[in-house]
Protein backbone atom coordinates (compact mmCIF):
# COMPACT_ATOMS: atom_id res chain seq x y z
CA UNK A 1 0.00 0.00 0.00
CA UNK A 2 1.28 3.43 -0.91
CA UNK A 3 2.35 5.49 2.02
CA UNK A 4 0.50 8.73 1.55
CA UNK A 5 2.40 10.73 4.10
CA UNK A 6 5.29 11.09 1.72
CA UNK A 7 3.15 13.54 -0.19
CA UNK A 8 3.66 16.02 2.59
CA UNK A 9 6.94 17.84 2.34
CA UNK A 10 6.16 20.62 4.75
CA UNK A 11 3.24 22.67 5.97
CA UNK A 12 3.62 26.20 7.13
CA UNK A 13 1.23 27.92 9.48
CA UNK A 14 1.46 31.70 9.51
CA UNK A 15 -0.46 34.02 11.80
CA UNK A 16 -0.60 37.66 10.90
CA UNK A 17 -2.48 40.71 12.13
CA UNK A 18 -3.90 41.01 15.58
CA UNK A 19 -7.03 40.03 17.46
CA UNK A 20 -8.35 36.58 18.25
CA UNK A 21 -7.17 34.01 17.27
CA UNK A 22 -3.97 35.40 15.72
CA UNK A 23 -3.00 36.81 19.11
CA UNK A 24 -3.00 33.34 20.52
CA UNK A 25 -0.20 32.23 18.29
CA UNK A 26 3.41 32.92 18.88
CA UNK A 27 5.53 31.89 17.05
CA UNK A 28 3.80 33.56 14.16
CA UNK A 29 5.12 30.91 11.81
CA UNK A 30 5.70 27.24 12.29
CA UNK A 31 6.68 24.52 9.91
CA UNK A 32 5.47 20.94 9.99
CA UNK A 33 7.88 18.66 8.22
CA UNK A 34 6.63 15.66 6.30
CA UNK A 35 7.50 12.32 7.90
CA UNK A 36 8.35 14.01 11.21
CA UNK A 37 6.63 14.46 14.54
CA UNK A 38 5.96 18.08 15.38
CA UNK A 39 4.88 18.73 18.94
CA UNK A 40 3.00 21.80 20.08
CA UNK A 41 3.25 22.69 23.74
CA UNK A 42 1.86 25.67 25.55
CA UNK A 43 -0.30 26.76 28.41
CA UNK A 44 -4.05 26.24 28.38
CA UNK A 45 -5.68 28.67 26.02
CA UNK A 46 -2.55 29.15 23.92
CA UNK A 47 -4.38 27.85 20.86
CA UNK A 48 -2.71 24.46 20.45
CA UNK A 49 -5.92 22.52 20.00
CA UNK A 50 -7.45 25.24 17.85
CA UNK A 51 -4.49 25.02 15.51
CA UNK A 52 -4.74 21.23 15.42
CA UNK A 53 -8.45 21.42 14.62
CA UNK A 54 -7.72 23.90 11.85
CA UNK A 55 -5.20 21.47 10.39
CA UNK A 56 -7.83 18.75 10.68
CA UNK A 57 -10.31 20.91 8.82
CA UNK A 58 -12.65 20.87 11.80
CA UNK A 59 -12.35 24.60 12.47
CA UNK A 60 -12.58 27.36 9.90
CA UNK A 61 -9.25 29.00 9.15
CA UNK A 62 -9.52 32.72 9.93
CA UNK A 63 -8.27 35.28 7.45
CA UNK A 64 -5.35 36.10 9.75
CA UNK A 65 -4.02 32.60 9.17
CA UNK A 66 -2.35 30.89 6.27
CA UNK A 67 -1.97 27.15 6.11
CA UNK A 68 0.52 26.76 3.34
CA UNK A 69 0.86 23.36 1.77
CA UNK A 70 -2.31 21.99 3.35
CA UNK A 71 -4.52 20.46 0.71
CA UNK A 72 -8.16 19.48 1.01
CA UNK A 73 -7.23 16.10 -0.46
CA UNK A 74 -5.00 15.25 2.51
CA UNK A 75 -6.31 12.36 4.47
CA UNK A 76 -6.26 13.30 8.14
CA UNK A 77 -6.62 11.26 11.30
CA UNK A 78 -7.45 12.96 14.57
CA UNK A 79 -7.03 11.35 17.96
CA UNK A 80 -7.92 12.95 21.28
CA UNK A 81 -7.69 11.81 24.90
CA UNK A 82 -11.41 11.09 24.73
CA UNK A 83 -11.25 8.04 22.47
CA UNK A 84 -15.00 7.34 22.38
CA UNK A 85 -14.82 3.73 21.29
CA UNK A 86 -18.18 2.53 20.11
CA UNK A 87 -19.35 0.30 22.97
CA UNK A 88 -21.44 -1.96 20.72
CA UNK A 89 -18.44 -2.94 18.60
CA UNK A 90 -15.55 -5.18 19.57
CA UNK A 91 -11.98 -3.91 19.78
CA UNK A 92 -11.36 -5.38 16.32
CA UNK A 93 -14.39 -3.67 14.81
CA UNK A 94 -13.60 -0.39 16.53
CA UNK A 95 -10.09 -0.41 15.15
CA UNK A 96 -11.25 -1.08 11.61
CA UNK A 97 -14.30 1.17 11.67
CA UNK A 98 -12.93 3.56 9.05
CA UNK A 99 -13.31 1.11 6.19
CA UNK A 100 -16.81 0.14 7.25
CA UNK A 101 -17.87 3.77 7.52
CA UNK A 102 -16.61 4.41 4.02
CA UNK A 103 -18.56 1.40 2.80
CA UNK A 104 -15.33 -0.37 1.86
CA UNK A 105 -14.54 -4.03 2.56
CA UNK A 106 -13.06 -4.65 5.98
CA UNK A 107 -9.27 -4.85 6.04
CA UNK A 108 -9.21 -7.87 8.33
CA UNK A 109 -5.54 -8.61 7.74
CA UNK A 110 -4.54 -4.99 8.34
CA UNK A 111 -6.60 -4.85 11.51
CA UNK A 112 -5.15 -8.11 12.79
CA UNK A 113 -1.60 -6.98 12.09
CA UNK A 114 -2.11 -3.59 13.72
CA UNK A 115 -3.77 -5.08 16.79
CA UNK A 116 -0.91 -7.55 17.03
CA UNK A 117 1.63 -4.71 16.91
CA UNK A 118 -0.21 -2.97 19.72
CA UNK A 119 -0.48 -6.20 21.74
CA UNK A 120 -4.24 -6.28 21.42
CA UNK A 121 -4.75 -9.43 19.39
CA UNK A 122 -5.94 -11.45 22.38
CA UNK A 123 -8.50 -8.77 23.17
CA UNK A 124 -9.75 -8.35 19.62
CA UNK A 125 -13.15 -9.82 20.40
CA UNK A 126 -13.72 -7.96 23.64
CA UNK A 127 -16.05 -5.02 23.97
CA UNK A 128 -14.83 -1.63 25.24
CA UNK A 129 -16.54 -2.22 28.60
CA UNK A 130 -14.32 -5.28 29.07
CA UNK A 131 -10.98 -3.54 28.55
CA UNK A 132 -8.86 -1.08 30.55
CA UNK A 133 -8.34 2.61 29.79
CA UNK A 134 -4.88 1.91 28.39
CA UNK A 135 -6.25 -0.79 26.08
CA UNK A 136 -8.95 1.59 24.93
CA UNK A 137 -6.26 4.14 24.09
CA UNK A 138 -4.34 1.47 22.18
CA UNK A 139 -7.49 0.57 20.28
CA UNK A 140 -7.95 4.23 19.37
CA UNK A 141 -4.32 4.32 18.32
CA UNK A 142 -4.94 1.28 16.11
CA UNK A 143 -7.96 3.06 14.62
CA UNK A 144 -5.77 6.10 13.90
CA UNK A 145 -2.95 4.01 12.42
CA UNK A 146 -5.34 2.03 10.23
CA UNK A 147 -6.54 5.25 8.64
CA UNK A 148 -3.07 5.48 7.06
CA UNK A 149 -3.52 9.21 6.98
CA UNK A 150 -1.30 11.78 5.33
CA UNK A 151 -1.50 13.91 8.44
CA UNK A 152 -1.88 12.40 11.91
CA UNK A 153 -3.16 14.86 14.49
CA UNK A 154 -2.93 13.85 18.14
CA UNK A 155 -4.55 16.19 20.67
CA UNK A 156 -3.26 15.33 24.14
CA UNK A 157 -4.07 11.71 23.48
CA UNK A 158 -2.57 10.39 26.72
CA UNK A 159 -3.50 13.16 29.14
CA UNK A 160 -5.90 11.00 31.11
CA UNK A 161 -3.59 8.01 31.53
CA UNK A 162 -1.47 6.99 34.49
CA UNK A 163 2.30 7.49 34.23
CA UNK A 164 3.21 3.93 33.24
CA UNK A 165 0.47 3.50 30.66
CA UNK A 166 1.31 6.92 29.33
CA UNK A 167 4.93 6.00 28.92
CA UNK A 168 3.98 2.78 27.13
CA UNK A 169 1.69 4.69 24.81
CA UNK A 170 4.45 7.16 24.02
CA UNK A 171 6.71 4.25 23.08
CA UNK A 172 4.00 2.87 20.78
CA UNK A 173 3.53 6.25 19.12
CA UNK A 174 7.27 6.62 18.64
CA UNK A 175 7.49 3.15 17.16
CA UNK A 176 4.43 3.12 14.93
CA UNK A 177 4.36 6.70 13.69
CA UNK A 178 8.04 6.57 12.73
CA UNK A 179 8.41 8.25 9.35
CA UNK A 180 4.83 9.53 9.35
CA UNK A 181 3.70 13.13 9.50
CA UNK A 182 2.40 13.74 13.00
CA UNK A 183 1.35 16.90 14.78
CA UNK A 184 0.82 16.35 18.47
CA UNK A 185 -0.42 18.66 21.18
CA UNK A 186 0.64 18.08 24.75
CA UNK A 187 0.89 19.86 28.08
CA UNK A 188 3.76 17.66 29.12
CA UNK A 189 7.29 18.88 28.28
CA UNK A 190 8.73 15.43 28.91
CA UNK A 191 6.33 13.90 26.43
CA UNK A 192 7.22 16.62 23.94
CA UNK A 193 10.92 15.90 24.30
CA UNK A 194 10.43 12.15 24.00
CA UNK A 195 8.29 12.27 20.89
CA UNK A 196 9.02 15.49 19.06
CA UNK A 197 11.37 15.87 16.12
CA UNK A 198 10.45 19.54 16.36
CA UNK A 199 8.81 21.26 19.28
CA UNK A 200 6.98 24.54 19.23
CA UNK A 201 6.02 26.46 22.32
CA UNK A 202 2.83 28.35 21.69
CA UNK A 203 2.51 31.53 23.66
CA UNK A 204 0.03 34.32 23.96
CA UNK A 205 2.68 36.95 24.55
CA UNK A 206 4.53 37.21 21.24
CA UNK A 207 7.55 38.14 23.29
CA UNK A 208 9.36 34.87 23.32
CA UNK A 209 11.35 35.50 20.18
CA UNK A 210 11.86 32.49 17.94
CA UNK A 211 9.93 29.96 19.92
CA UNK A 212 10.65 26.85 17.91
CA UNK A 213 12.71 24.37 19.80
CA UNK A 214 13.74 21.79 17.30
CA UNK A 215 15.14 18.54 18.51
CA UNK A 216 18.26 19.28 16.46
CA UNK A 217 18.73 22.48 18.41
CA UNK A 218 18.79 20.45 21.51
CA UNK A 219 21.67 18.32 20.29
CA UNK A 220 24.13 17.81 23.06
CA UNK A 221 21.54 18.45 25.72
CA UNK A 222 20.15 15.62 27.79
CA UNK A 223 16.38 14.99 27.51
CA UNK A 224 16.04 16.19 31.09
CA UNK A 225 17.78 19.47 30.24
CA UNK A 226 15.62 19.94 27.17
CA UNK A 227 12.49 19.25 29.21
CA UNK A 228 13.73 21.74 31.81
CA UNK A 229 14.23 24.33 29.09
CA UNK A 230 10.72 23.66 27.85
CA UNK A 231 9.36 24.06 31.38
CA UNK A 232 11.07 27.44 31.59
CA UNK A 233 9.66 28.52 28.25
CA UNK A 234 6.19 27.39 29.26
CA UNK A 235 6.43 29.33 32.50
CA UNK A 236 7.40 32.41 30.56
CA UNK A 237 4.75 31.94 27.88
CA UNK B 1 -38.47 -9.82 40.29
CA UNK B 2 -41.20 -12.43 39.78
CA UNK B 3 -41.35 -13.03 43.54
CA UNK B 4 -41.66 -9.29 44.14
CA UNK B 5 -44.47 -9.05 41.58
CA UNK B 6 -46.30 -12.00 43.16
CA UNK B 7 -45.98 -10.50 46.64
CA UNK B 8 -47.30 -7.14 45.37
CA UNK B 9 -50.17 -8.86 43.60
CA UNK B 10 -51.06 -10.90 46.70
CA UNK B 11 -50.91 -7.74 48.82
CA UNK B 12 -53.23 -5.87 46.47
CA UNK B 13 -55.69 -8.79 46.45
CA UNK B 14 -55.68 -8.85 50.26
CA UNK B 15 -56.27 -5.09 50.40
CA UNK B 16 -59.03 -5.43 47.81
CA UNK B 17 -60.70 -8.28 49.71
CA UNK B 18 -60.35 -6.27 52.92
CA UNK B 19 -62.20 -3.33 51.35
CA UNK B 20 -64.98 -5.62 50.16
CA UNK B 21 -65.31 -7.31 53.58
CA UNK B 22 -65.04 -4.19 55.75
CA UNK B 23 -67.48 -2.09 53.71
CA UNK B 24 -69.63 -5.10 52.76
CA UNK B 25 -69.59 -4.15 49.10
CA UNK B 26 -72.22 -5.87 46.95
CA UNK B 27 -70.73 -7.78 43.96
CA UNK B 28 -72.40 -5.45 41.45
CA UNK B 29 -70.39 -2.51 42.93
CA UNK B 30 -67.09 -4.14 43.87
CA UNK B 31 -66.74 -7.91 43.69
CA UNK B 32 -63.97 -9.54 45.68
CA UNK B 33 -60.91 -11.01 43.94
CA UNK B 34 -62.29 -14.51 44.50
CA UNK B 35 -65.43 -13.75 42.51
CA UNK B 36 -63.39 -12.22 39.69
CA UNK B 37 -61.06 -15.22 39.38
CA UNK B 38 -64.03 -17.56 39.56
CA UNK B 39 -65.57 -15.73 36.58
CA UNK B 40 -62.29 -15.94 34.73
CA UNK B 41 -61.92 -19.67 35.33
CA UNK B 42 -65.54 -20.45 34.53
CA UNK B 43 -65.37 -19.19 30.95
CA UNK B 44 -61.75 -18.99 29.80
CA UNK B 45 -62.75 -19.30 26.12
CA UNK B 46 -64.77 -16.09 26.31
CA UNK B 47 -61.88 -14.11 27.73
CA UNK B 48 -59.29 -15.70 25.45
CA UNK B 49 -61.38 -14.93 22.36
CA UNK B 50 -61.81 -11.27 23.25
CA UNK B 51 -58.26 -10.89 24.57
CA UNK B 52 -56.90 -12.26 21.27
CA UNK B 53 -58.76 -9.54 19.33
CA UNK B 54 -57.43 -6.78 21.59
CA UNK B 55 -53.93 -8.28 21.53
CA UNK B 56 -53.84 -8.26 17.73
CA UNK B 57 -54.97 -4.63 17.71
CA UNK B 58 -52.35 -3.59 20.24
CA UNK B 59 -49.45 -5.51 18.69
CA UNK B 60 -50.21 -4.28 15.17
CA UNK B 61 -50.61 -0.70 16.45
CA UNK B 62 -47.32 -0.95 18.29
CA UNK B 63 -45.47 -2.24 15.23
CA UNK B 64 -47.00 0.40 12.94
CA UNK B 65 -46.58 3.17 15.53
CA UNK B 66 -42.92 2.28 16.14
CA UNK B 67 -42.16 2.11 12.41
CA UNK B 68 -44.01 5.35 11.58
CA UNK B 69 -42.58 7.16 14.62
CA UNK B 70 -39.08 5.99 13.73
CA UNK B 71 -39.36 7.06 10.08
CA UNK B 72 -40.83 10.44 11.03
CA UNK B 73 -38.21 10.99 13.73
CA UNK B 74 -35.37 10.27 11.29
CA UNK B 75 -36.96 12.60 8.72
CA UNK B 76 -37.26 15.44 11.26
CA UNK B 77 -33.68 14.88 12.40
CA UNK B 78 -32.37 14.88 8.85
CA UNK B 79 -34.28 17.78 7.40
CA UNK B 80 -34.88 21.19 8.94
CA UNK B 81 -37.58 21.79 6.37
CA UNK B 82 -39.37 18.56 7.31
CA UNK B 83 -39.12 19.58 10.94
CA UNK B 84 -40.77 22.94 10.24
CA UNK B 85 -43.65 21.21 8.45
CA UNK B 86 -44.13 18.15 10.62
CA UNK B 87 -43.68 19.49 14.18
CA UNK B 88 -46.78 21.74 14.15
CA UNK B 89 -48.86 18.82 12.87
CA UNK B 90 -47.45 16.53 15.53
CA UNK B 91 -48.16 19.03 18.29
CA UNK B 92 -51.65 19.67 16.95
CA UNK B 93 -52.31 15.93 16.95
CA UNK B 94 -51.47 15.88 20.66
CA UNK B 95 -53.60 18.92 21.45
CA UNK B 96 -56.74 17.06 20.38
CA UNK B 97 -57.53 14.15 22.73
CA UNK B 98 -57.61 10.90 20.81
CA UNK B 99 -60.78 9.99 22.72
CA UNK B 100 -62.53 12.96 21.12
CA UNK B 101 -61.90 11.73 17.59
CA UNK B 102 -62.61 8.06 18.36
CA UNK B 103 -66.23 8.22 17.11
CA UNK B 104 -65.04 9.84 13.88
CA UNK B 105 -62.44 7.14 13.35
CA UNK B 106 -65.10 4.45 13.75
CA UNK B 107 -67.30 6.23 11.19
CA UNK B 108 -64.42 6.63 8.76
CA UNK B 109 -62.69 3.28 9.24
CA UNK B 110 -65.52 1.04 10.38
CA UNK B 111 -66.07 -1.27 13.34
CA UNK B 112 -63.20 -3.57 12.45
CA UNK B 113 -59.53 -3.58 13.43
CA UNK B 114 -58.55 -0.49 11.41
CA UNK B 115 -60.22 2.11 13.66
CA UNK B 116 -58.77 0.57 16.85
CA UNK B 117 -55.29 0.23 15.38
CA UNK B 118 -55.42 3.84 14.17
CA UNK B 119 -56.47 5.02 17.62
CA UNK B 120 -53.58 3.20 19.26
CA UNK B 121 -51.11 4.32 16.57
CA UNK B 122 -52.10 7.95 17.22
CA UNK B 123 -51.27 7.49 20.90
CA UNK B 124 -48.00 5.64 20.28
CA UNK B 125 -46.69 7.74 17.42
CA UNK B 126 -45.82 10.94 19.30
CA UNK B 127 -43.61 9.56 22.10
CA UNK B 128 -41.76 7.35 19.63
CA UNK B 129 -41.11 10.24 17.22
CA UNK B 130 -39.90 12.52 20.00
CA UNK B 131 -37.64 9.78 21.38
CA UNK B 132 -36.09 9.12 17.97
CA UNK B 133 -35.43 12.83 17.30
CA UNK B 134 -33.98 13.41 20.79
CA UNK B 135 -31.88 10.26 20.64
CA UNK B 136 -30.34 11.15 17.31
CA UNK B 137 -29.71 14.74 18.35
CA UNK B 138 -27.88 13.78 21.53
CA UNK B 139 -25.00 12.09 19.76
CA UNK B 140 -22.61 15.03 20.19
CA UNK B 141 -19.90 16.33 17.87
CA UNK B 142 -17.21 13.66 18.35
CA UNK B 143 -18.37 11.03 15.89
CA UNK B 144 -19.66 13.40 13.20
CA UNK B 145 -16.17 14.96 13.22
CA UNK B 146 -14.43 11.59 13.07
CA UNK B 147 -16.80 10.50 10.33
CA UNK B 148 -15.99 13.62 8.32
CA UNK B 149 -12.25 12.93 8.60
CA UNK B 150 -12.73 9.25 7.77
CA UNK B 151 -14.82 10.08 4.71
CA UNK B 152 -17.81 8.17 6.06
CA UNK B 153 -20.86 7.58 3.89
CA UNK B 154 -24.26 8.51 5.33
CA UNK B 155 -25.80 5.04 5.55
CA UNK B 156 -22.89 3.21 7.18
CA UNK B 157 -22.57 6.14 9.59
CA UNK B 158 -26.25 5.90 10.44
CA UNK B 159 -26.31 2.13 11.01
CA UNK B 160 -22.93 1.80 12.71
CA UNK B 161 -22.83 4.92 14.85
CA UNK B 162 -25.87 7.16 14.94
CA UNK B 163 -28.62 4.58 15.35
CA UNK B 164 -26.90 2.53 18.07
CA UNK B 165 -25.98 5.77 19.88
CA UNK B 166 -29.62 6.77 20.05
CA UNK B 167 -31.05 3.35 20.94
CA UNK B 168 -31.22 4.13 24.66
CA UNK B 169 -33.54 7.08 24.13
CA UNK B 170 -35.51 5.28 21.43
CA UNK B 171 -35.97 2.42 23.90
CA UNK B 172 -37.62 4.82 26.35
CA UNK B 173 -40.08 5.84 23.61
CA UNK B 174 -40.75 2.19 22.80
CA UNK B 175 -41.48 1.36 26.44
CA UNK B 176 -43.89 4.31 26.74
CA UNK B 177 -45.52 3.11 23.51
CA UNK B 178 -45.95 -0.42 24.86
CA UNK B 179 -47.56 0.89 28.04
CA UNK B 180 -49.95 3.29 26.30
CA UNK B 181 -50.94 1.41 23.12
CA UNK B 182 -53.70 -0.55 24.96
CA UNK B 183 -55.47 2.74 25.79
CA UNK B 184 -56.14 3.40 22.11
CA UNK B 185 -57.35 -0.12 21.43
CA UNK B 186 -59.71 -0.20 24.42
CA UNK B 187 -61.17 3.27 23.74
CA UNK B 188 -61.68 2.26 20.12
CA UNK B 189 -63.55 -0.86 21.23
CA UNK B 190 -65.74 1.17 23.58
CA UNK B 191 -66.80 3.45 20.75
CA UNK B 192 -67.72 0.70 18.35
CA UNK B 193 -66.62 -2.89 18.00
CA UNK B 194 -67.90 -6.43 17.76
CA UNK B 195 -65.20 -8.00 19.90
CA UNK B 196 -62.26 -7.32 22.19
CA UNK B 197 -61.77 -6.77 25.91
CA UNK B 198 -63.11 -3.18 25.70
CA UNK B 199 -66.25 -4.44 23.99
CA UNK B 200 -66.63 -7.20 26.60
CA UNK B 201 -66.21 -4.73 29.47
CA UNK B 202 -68.76 -2.33 28.02
CA UNK B 203 -71.39 -5.03 27.54
CA UNK B 204 -70.77 -6.64 30.93
CA UNK B 205 -70.99 -3.22 32.58
CA UNK B 206 -74.35 -2.55 30.96
CA UNK B 207 -75.62 -5.87 32.40
CA UNK B 208 -74.14 -5.19 35.83
CA UNK B 209 -71.78 -8.19 35.39
CA UNK B 210 -69.07 -6.40 37.32
CA UNK B 211 -66.93 -9.54 37.98
CA UNK B 212 -66.70 -9.94 34.17
CA UNK B 213 -65.56 -6.29 33.87
CA UNK B 214 -62.85 -6.92 36.45
CA UNK B 215 -61.84 -10.21 34.82
CA UNK B 216 -61.49 -8.44 31.45
CA UNK B 217 -59.44 -5.72 33.16
CA UNK B 218 -57.23 -8.41 34.68
CA UNK B 219 -56.65 -9.96 31.23
CA UNK B 220 -55.75 -6.52 29.85
CA UNK B 221 -53.38 -5.92 32.76
CA UNK B 222 -51.60 -9.24 32.23
CA UNK B 223 -51.27 -8.63 28.50
CA UNK B 224 -50.03 -5.04 28.88
CA UNK B 225 -47.47 -6.02 31.50
CA UNK B 226 -46.29 -8.91 29.31
CA UNK B 227 -45.97 -6.63 26.29
CA UNK B 228 -44.09 -4.04 28.31
CA UNK B 229 -41.83 -6.77 29.66
CA UNK B 230 -41.14 -8.05 26.16
CA UNK B 231 -40.29 -4.55 24.83
CA UNK B 232 -38.15 -3.89 27.90
CA UNK B 233 -36.33 -7.19 27.48
CA UNK B 234 -35.75 -6.58 23.75
CA UNK B 235 -34.46 -3.06 24.41
CA UNK B 236 -32.03 -4.35 27.03
CA UNK B 237 -30.80 -7.08 24.72
CA UNK B 238 -30.22 -4.51 21.98
CA UNK B 239 -28.43 -2.23 24.45
CA UNK B 240 -26.18 -5.02 25.71
CA UNK B 241 -23.28 -2.66 26.27
CA UNK B 242 -25.02 -0.43 28.79
CA UNK B 243 -24.34 -1.05 32.43
CA UNK B 244 -27.68 0.25 33.65
CA UNK B 245 -30.25 -2.32 32.76
Question: Care to give the gist of this entry?
Answer:
With 237 residues, chain A is α/β, with parallel strands linked by helices. Chain A is 33% helix and 19% strand.
Coarse morphology of chain B: elongated
Strand content of chain B: under 5%
Number of helical regions of chain A: 8
Number of strands of chain A: 9
Poorly predicted regions of chain B are none
Oligomer: heterodimer
Inertia-based shape of chain A: globular
Strand % of chain A is 15-25%
The count of helical stretches of chain B stands at 10
Most extensive chain interface and residues per partner: A-B, 23 and 21 residues
Mean pLDDT of chain A: 80
Give the mean pLDDT of chain B.
Answer: 92
**Helix/sheet category of chain B:** mainly alpha
Total strand segments of chain B = 0
Helix content of chain B: over 70%
The N- and C-terminal alpha carbons of chain A lie at a distance of 43 Å
Computed structural class of chain A: alpha/beta
Order of SSEs of chain A, N→C?
EEEHEEHHHHEHEHEEH
Unreliable segments of 5+ consecutive residues of chain A: 1-7, 206-212
Major sheet details of chain B: none
Amino acid sequence: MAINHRHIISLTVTASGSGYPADLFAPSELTISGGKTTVLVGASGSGKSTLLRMLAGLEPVPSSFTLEGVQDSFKRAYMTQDVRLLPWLTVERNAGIGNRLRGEPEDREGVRTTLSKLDLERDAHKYPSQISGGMAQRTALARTLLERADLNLLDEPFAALDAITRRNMQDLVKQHFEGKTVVMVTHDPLEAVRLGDAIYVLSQTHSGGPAALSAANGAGQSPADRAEELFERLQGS
Amino acid sequence: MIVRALITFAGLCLFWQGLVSVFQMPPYILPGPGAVFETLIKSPDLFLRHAAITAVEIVLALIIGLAAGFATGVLIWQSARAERWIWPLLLASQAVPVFAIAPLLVIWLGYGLASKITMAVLIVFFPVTVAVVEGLRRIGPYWPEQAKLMGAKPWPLFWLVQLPSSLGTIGVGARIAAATAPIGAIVGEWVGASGGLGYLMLHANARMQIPTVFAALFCLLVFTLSLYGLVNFTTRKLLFWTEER
